[in-house]
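quick one: copper (II) ion bound model?
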Amino acid sequence: MKKLRPFIFPLLLILICLLAACGRAAANEATITIKEMAFGQSEVTVKAGQLVTLRLVNRDGYTHAFDMDAFEIHTSLAANETAVLRFTPEKPGRYPFYCSSPGHEMAGMVGTLIVEP
Ligand SMILES: [Cu+2]
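yep, here:
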């Protein structure tokens, strides 16, 4: 057991580096929960030029949608359905998203994807 001790510190360092790398990758992931006719997050910030993973969770008992015209994303979510979207925004900017179910956008189902350089 004593012989193993010199290896523990480098192993810990490697582990910390791996965890840090995972943390960085997770920064371009977001979960938007839809509940009571609203997006749980009205602003989502991601980095340009990197794959974005957007998880949409519909907690309402009826259909919603997630629409982002700039990226030609138009997804329908049935009651209590979860959808995962993956796309890579190339240009920094502010891109609006909304729910295209009739009347929902007017009711406030809108938000903004902020793409940082
Ligand atoms: Cu909706």
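Residues 64, 99, 101, 104, 109 surround copper (II) ion (CB under 6 Å).
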